[in-house]
Every structure is written in C-alpha cells, then in structure tokens.
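Long-time lurker, first post. I've been practising inverse folding by hand and with some scripts of my own, and I keep getting stuck on stretches where the structure tokens seem ambiguous. Below is the full token string for one chain I'm working on. Before anyone asks, I'm not after the true native sequence, just a reasonable design that respects the backbone. If someone could post their per-position residues I'd love to compare against what I wrote down in my notebook.
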C-alpha cells in the first residue's frame, strides 16, 4: 500500500557547500512537509548499516567514507505520492544524468557526492525513517 511519507538525507557535500537551506527550501516549495528533522554526523557503523544493501558493491567503502565525512540533515517528509514525487524532485543518481532543475542537477557534482538521498520505495521509506527517528520525534 502506498504511503505518503519518504525519508531523505542532505549529504555531507551539500551541507559542506552551504546548500542545505536552499535544498530544504526546494523540498518545501515542492509541497513536502517536514515531519521530522535532525542535524548529525554519521559514524562508520551507522552509515554501513544504513547502506547495508550495498555492502558487496565496489563503491561501498567510498560511500561510507563519504557519508561519514561531515554532518548531514536527516528528515522524514510528507506529501501525497511522496516516494515517487521525491525521486522525481531529486533526479537521477548521477547528477550528469539528472533532469534540469532537479536537486541533484542543481547542487551535486558527482555520482558519489550527489547531495541528497531519497527512499526508493514505501517499504524502504518506512524502514529508513524508523532507523533515524522514534515516534516521539515526528510532528
Ligand atoms: P540512489 O537511490 O539514487 O541514492 O542510488 P543507489 O541506491 O543506487 O546508490 C546509493 C548511493 O550510493 C548513491 O546515492 C551514491 O551516493 C552512491 N553510489 C551509487 N553508485 C555509485 C558509484 O558508482 N560510485 C560511488 N562512489 N558511489 C555510488
């Protein structure tokens, strides 16, 4: 069953480059409501667990090193058709292939440092949101 929530992170490159405010603004302008929000730095174990599905991929170590390299914003967002609409808003994984005006096209430089995460399914949105937030941290 489709839900109306998705999970996002503003990744270390975008925070480092000072884009977090502009990215949050683009998300809310597109109709996403912030249900939960944290500013934090991931440690190796947390980043490794979050991206556990990619553990066997050749880029896994680089991904964990990158995701722990500086602070991130983690958030749960709400909107009708949230997962699909948010994936459209952020654009393709590789910013070189991301559509004009998408968050990754505007703010990302490379496939690894690609500015934002967005859940790829309703099931994962729920798992990822619960990985970061308790029920008492959602409004
Ligand atoms: P997403 O759902 O669009 O974030 O893409 P994936 O789930 O396929 O990959 C997860 C994350 O791993 C991406 O957002 C990138 O940060 C990173 N990633 C994916 N492919 C590569 C790659 O070929 N090299 C590196 N270094 N990182 C990658």
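-- Answer (accepted) --
I ran through it position by position. Result:
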């Amino acid at each position: 069953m489709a839900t109306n929530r998705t999970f996002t992170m503003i990744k270390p490159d975008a925070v480092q480059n000072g884009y977090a405010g502009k990215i949050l603004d683009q998300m809310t302008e597109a109709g996403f409501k912030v249900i939960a929000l944290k500013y934090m730095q991931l440690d190796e174990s947390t980043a490794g667990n979050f991206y556990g599905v990619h553990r066997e991929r050749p880029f896994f170590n680089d991904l964990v090193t990158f995701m722990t390299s500086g602070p991130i914003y983690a958030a749960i967002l709400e909107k009708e058709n949230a997962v699909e609409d948010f994936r459209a808003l952020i654009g393709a994984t590789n910013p070189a292939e991301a559509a004009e005006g998408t968050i990754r096209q505007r703010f990302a430089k490379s496939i690894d440092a690609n500015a934002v995460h967005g859940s790829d399914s309703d099931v994962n949105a729920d798992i990822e949101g619960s990985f970061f937030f308790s029920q008492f941290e959602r409004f």
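A couple of notes from the structure itself: The chain is about 40% helix and 15% strand. The domain at 5-137 is CATH 3.30.70.141 (Alpha-Beta Plaits). Happy to go over any region you disagree with.
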